[in-house]
Write a structure and sequence with these properties.
The protein is mainly alpha-helical. It is about 75% helix and about 0% strand. Helix 1 crosses helix 3.
Length: about 90
């Protein structure tokens, strides 16, 4: 969960530094707020919030600047690593 939180914070920081973030895609503001909430969320809520953010980011990741795309990829990887195996 620590890596998941770290990756979520990285994407949130990039969103906050990007002046055009809220205009980049339809759910950009929602993703930014979701990731802000994830910063202090307990484990299960953190996972659910990041899962929702990653789903919303899937439509726009390809159009992001390179460092942001890389941060989103790390967030996806951290989510996959945190996913319970069945």
């Amino acid at each position: 969960m620590a890596e998941l939180r770290k990756a979520a914070l990285e994407v949130h920081r990039r969103a906050g530094a990007d002046r055009r973030w809220d205009r980049r895609f339809t759910r950009a503001a929602l993703v930014r707020e979701t990731l802000a909430t994830a910063a202090d969320a307990p484990g299960g809520a953190l996972y659910a919030l990041v899962e929702a953010a990653v789903g919303d980011l899937s439509e726009a990741a390809a159009s992001m600047p390179g460092p942001t795309r890389a941060a989103i990829a790390r967030l996806r990887e951290a989510l996959e690593a945190a996913t319970p195996q069945t």
